[in-house]
Automatic annotation (TrEMBL), chains A, B:
Gene3D superfamilies attached to this UniProt entry: Aspartate Aminotransferase, domain 1, TusA-like domain, Type I PLP-dependent aspartate aminotransferase-like (Major domain)
Record region (Disordered): 377-410
Domain UPF0033: 414-438
Compositionally biased spans, kind Low complexity: 377-396
Listed SUPFAM superfamilies: PLP-dependent transferases, SirA-like
Cofactor(s) this protein requires: pyridoxal 5'-phosphate
Catalysis: reaction(s): (sulfur carrier)-H + L-cysteine = (sulfur carrier)-SH + L-alanine
InterPro entries in alphabetical order: Aminotrans_V_dom (IPR000192), PyrdxlP-dep_Trfase (IPR015424), PyrdxlP-dep_Trfase_major (IPR015421), PyrdxlP-dep_Trfase_small (IPR015422), TusA-like (IPR001455), TusA-like_sf (IPR036868)
Entry-linked Pfam families: Aminotran_5 (PF00266), TusA (PF01206)
Family: Belongs to the class-V pyridoxal-phosphate-dependent aminotransferase family. NifS/IscS subfamily.
Protein name in the entry: Cysteine desulfurase/sulfurtransferase TusA family protein
Protein source organism: Streptomyces tremellae
Length: 483, 483
C-alpha cells in the first residue's frame, strides 16, 4: 500500500464493497412507494439511518443523507443561517475550515450576511475564547471542524460548543476527517460528514441537525430526506457507507494506536533524514493517521511527482499544486512554511514497512528536486557558494547568480518578480551571504507564497523578518541579517 | 417480472452492475490529484463524460455529472436564470413538468422572478404556439420535458426549441423519461437527465449546457465538474450510469417496438376488461413503455394495494396516494379523471406474459375496490339501485343512502363534505337517478379531486357539467342531467 492520501479519499472498505453488492438488488426502488420493491428500499434506508445515527450520536430523525459531504456542509450552513435569519446574518468560522465550509459561509456573506474568521495558532488550533469574542448579537451560526484536514490538528469542539451554547448560537461541526475515528463529543447542533473519507463509497454525505435547532430549507422544495436533501437517494451507496462506518469504528481504537505510532515515526524521522524540514500541526492533539511537513527550497508539485514515481501518493498544500497558485489557506492561517509541502494520510491497514519505505525514498526525492532547482545546500545560511550535486546540476544548467543590487539605502534588493515558489526563497538564500550582519535585504516578489515562506525561512535560519512594504511591482519582503 | 414502475426507478441494468463492480477499484480516488490513483480516476471520468456526451448529442465539455436528475434540473434552471438575469427573471414551463422543474421555477419566482405555466391539451401535450405566446422580453429561460413522466405523452421539443431560438430564449429540456430511448432532437440549450431511469444506479444525473448559453453558477464555489456541480463525484456510479445508457441505447429500437406493442395491448384491453375506465395520454406520440388509465369509483391507493398483493408494482397520480391529498398536477392540467389512477411503465425486458397476467388480474382488483366502496355498477348512470356484489358488500356494510336533499331552488344537493376521493363522485352517481332530466344536482365537497373527477364523470356519462360555485363549506360542483 503506497497510497498515503486517505484524507482526500479512502479506498473502498471491503465491508462497504460487500454491503454495496448485497444491496444493489434491494435498494434501487423509490423508498416512498408503497409496493414491495419500495418497501424493501425503505427498510434498507431506515436501517441505515438508525445505524448512522447511532454512530454519530443523534436520533435517527435528526439525520439525513446527502449526495456528498460538500452537500451536507452547504445544506447545513444554508439551513441554519436561514432558520435564524431573524437573529441576523453573521457567521463565525475558523480560518482553517475545509473549503466547502468557507465557500458556503462566504456565499452567505456575499448574499447580505457577514463573516468572521477566527484565527488559529501555529499548530492550526482555534482558542475557544476566540470564538467567544467572535460571537455577536447577530450571530446566526458558528462552524468548526472536528479536526483539520491538512495538518491533522484536533480542534477543541466541546469547549467551543459550550461557548456557543452559552450564547445561544448553534455550532455546526464539519466532522469529515474524524467521524470514522469516533463520535464528536460536545453539545454541537449540526454535524456534517462524508462517507468516502472513512472507506465508504463516494456519493454519500450525512447531515445531522439536533432537535430544537432552528432550520429552514432554502431552494426548491423536495419531499425526500425530510425536505433537507433533494434528489433520489442512492440507497445501496448509503447502506455501504454506513456498513463501512460501523466497520472502521470497530477497528478504530486499535488502528488509531497503530497508525499514530507510524505517524510519530514520520514526525521524528523526517527532520532527521531531510535537512530544512518543518513538521507542522499539533504533535499530540492530532488525527491518528495524518502528518504534514514542508521542505525548504522545494517545489511541491515536483516533489509529488518524484514520490509518485516511487509509488507514493501524497498531497500538498504548496501553491504550485493549487489552481490559484496560492498556498493552502490552512498553512497561511498557521503562518508556516508552505513550499515543498507534503501531507501524508495513512489509510487503515497501512503497514510499518510501507512507512519505512517512504522514509527511505523521501530524502532522495527531496534532494533531487532541490538539485534541479540548484537550491542552496542545507548548511547554515550565508554560504551561497555551496551548490547542488553535479549530477543534478547537469540535468538543469546552473542558473545565473540572482539579480541582486544594493538599493539607494544600501539595502540589498533581490528581484524575484515573475518567479514562482520556491525560487524567491532560494534567491534570498543565495544572496544572503553578501548581506553584512545587521544589514537588510529586500526580496521583490509577486508570488503569494513568498509572504508565507520568507518569514518562515527567517524563523528556520534565525534571521529577523522585518515585514513587507509596497513596491512598484509586487511586494518587497525585508529581512535583517542577525548572524 | 411484475415491477411495472420503471418511470419511477428502473432496476439496475446488468451492464451497470458489471461496470460498477469493475470500476470500484479504479474510481474511488480524487480525479483532481496528480498521483496514479487520481489519474486513473480521472481517466474513467473523462471516458464516461465522452460517452455520455455522445449519447446526449453534445460536446464532452458541455456535460457535467450531478448527484441526481433533480440536482441537474435545479442547477440548470438556477444557472440559466442567473446567467440571463440582466434580461429578466421570467421563466416559462409547461404545466405538466416534473415536480423538480416546477419547484425550481417556483423557487426562482418566489425569489423575485416570475413564472408562466403553459397549459396542455387533454393528452398532456403543449402547443409550440403557446410557448411563443408565453415568451416575453424579460423571459430568461423556458423549460419543457421531452416526454411526460405520468402519461407518457411526447412533447414537441424541436418545435418549441425553434420558437425559443427565434426569440433568443434558451430552452432547458428535462429528458429524464426519454434519454434511454434516444437523444433529444432539436436546438435545445440545456438538458437534464437521471441515470436510475434508464437502469443506471441512483446518485447520477447529468446536465448539458450548450456552448454559448449564458450560465452563472449560484451558491458556494466548488471547482469540480466545471464549477457546475459541487461535491466529490461518485465515479464508479458515473461509469455504471454511462455504461447502462449505452447498453439500453443499443437495445432501444427493438425494445421500443416490443414494449410499445405491449402498451397498445394495455391501452386496448383495459377499457374492454374494466368498465368505466379512461385511458389518458397521447395514444401515438408517446413513450414506448408507459400507459396510464383512471378507473371511476376507485380509490387509487386501495387499487395499488390490490395489485401489490397480486405482485404488480405500479404507481398512481390519485390524490389518495399523494401526501398533499391532491391529484397529480399532470392529471389536473390535462383535465382528466384522477380517481383510481394507475400508471404502468414497463422495464426493459418485460414479457408479454407479464402484461397478460396483469390484464387478467386487473378487472378483479378494480371490482374488489369498487365493491368495498359500494360503488354504483357500471351500468348507465341513473340506476343508483344497482350495487356491488354481495360478497364484497359483506366485507364492508352497505353505507346509508347519501345525504341528498332538494335545495331552495329545487336543485338536489349532495353533502360530501369531509369525504375523500372517490366518495364524492360515487355519491353523485348514487343520487343521480333522483335528478329529473333537465334538473341539476350540486355536490358539496372539500376534496380537491372532486374538481377534476366530477367534470370527468360528466364527460364519461354524457351529462352536463355546469361549473362550480362557492359554498359555505367547500365548493358546490353543479351538474345538469341531460338523459
Amino acid at each position: 500500500m503506497s497510497y498515503f492520501d486517505s484524507a482526500s479519499s479512502a479506498p473502498l472498505h471491503p465491508v462497504a464493497r460487500r454491503a454495496l453488492q448485497a444491496s444493489l438488488d434491494e435498494g434501487w426502488a423509490d423508498p416512498a412507494r408503497l409496493y414491495r420493491e419500495g418497501r424493501r428500499a425503505a427498510l434498507l434506508l431506515d436501517a441505515a439511518r438508525e445505524a448512522a445515527a447511532e454512530a454519530v450520536g443523534c436520533r435517527a430523525d435528526e439525520l439525513v443523507f446527502t449526495p456528498s459531504g460538500t452537500h451536507a456542509v452547504h445544506a447545513g450552513i444554508s439551513g441554519a443561517l436561514s432558520g435564524r435569519r431573524r437573529v441576523g446574518g453573521h457567521a463565525v468560522v475558523s480560518a482553517v475550515e475545509h473549503s466547502s465550509v468557507l465557500h458556503a459561509a462566504r456565499a452567505a456573506a456575499d448574499a447580505g450576511g457577514s463573516l468572521t474568521e477566527v484565527p488559529v495558532d501555529r499548530y492550526g488550533a482555534v482558542a475557544p475564547a476566540a470564538y467567544g469574542e467572535a460571537l455577536r448579537a447577530d450571530t446566526a451560526l458558528a462552524c468548526l471542524q472536528s479536526a483539520n484536514h491538512e495538518v491533522g490538528t484536533v480542534q477543541p469542539v466541546a469547549e467551543v460548543a459550550e461557548v456557543c451554547r452559552e450564547r445561544g448560537v448553534p455550532l455546526l461541526v464539519d466532522a469529515a476527517q474524524s467521524l470514522g475515528w469516533g463520535p464528536v463529543e460536545g453539545a454541537w447542533s449540526l454535524l456534517a460528514a462524508s462517507a468516502h473519507k472513512w472507506g465508504g463509497p463516494a456519493g454519500v454525505g450525512l447531515l445531522a441537525v439536533r432537535k430544537g435547532v432552528r432550520y429552514a430549507v432554502r431552494g426548491p422544495a423536495d419531499e425526500r430526506e425530510s425536505g433537507r436533501s433533494p434528489g433520489f437517494v442512492n440507497i445501496p451507496a448509503v447502506v455501504a457507507a454506513v456498513a463501512s462506518l460501523r466497520a472502521v469504528r470497530t477497528e478504530a481504537e486499535a488502528e488509531a494506536r497503530r497508525l499514530s505510532e507510524l505517524v510519530d515515526l514520520v514526525r521524528t524521522r523526517v527532520p532527521e533524514l531531510v535537512p530544512d524540514v518543518e513538521v507542522v500541526g499539533d504533535p499530540v492533539a492530532r488525527l491518528p493517521h495524518l502528518v504534514t511537513f514542508s521542505c525548504l527550497y522545494v517545489d511541491g508539485e515536483a516533489l509529488l511527482h518524484e514520490l509518485d514515481r516511487a509509488d507514493f501518493s501524497v498531497s500538498s498544500g504548496s501553491s504550485c499544486t493549487s489552481d490559484t497558485l496560492t498556498p493552502s489557506h490552512v498553512l497561511r492561517a498557521m503562518g508556516v512554511l508552505s513550499e515543498g509541502n507534503v501531507r501524508v494520510s495513512l489509510p487503515c491497514g497501512t503497514g510499518r514497512a510501507d512507512v519505512e519505505r517512504f522514509l527511505a525514498v523521501l530524502p532522495g526525492a527531496v534532494a533531487a528536486v532541490r538539485a534541479r532547482l540548484a537550491a542552496p545546500a542545507a548548511a547554515s545560511p550565508g554560504s551561497p557558494g555551496s551548490r547542488a550535486p553535479a549530477a543534478a546540476a547537469a540535468e538543469s544548467p546552473e542558473p545565473p547568480e540572482p539579480a541582486a543590487a544594493p538599493g539607494p539605502t544600501g539595502e540589498l534588493v533581490v528581484d524575484a518578480l515573475g518567479r514562482r515558489c520556491p525560487i524567491p526563497v532560494i534567491e534570498l538564500a543565495k544572496v544572503f551571504g553578501r548581506v553584512p550582519v545587521g544589514g537588510t535585504v529586500a526580496v521583490l516578489s509577486d508570488d503569494e507564497a513568498a509572504r508565507l515562506d520568507i518569514p518562515a525561512w527567517c524563523g528556520m535560519r534565525g534571521q529577523e523578518y522585518l515585514g513587507e512594504r509596497p513596491a512598484d511591482r509586487g511586494v518587497a519582503y525585508v529581512v535583517r541579517r542577525l548572524s
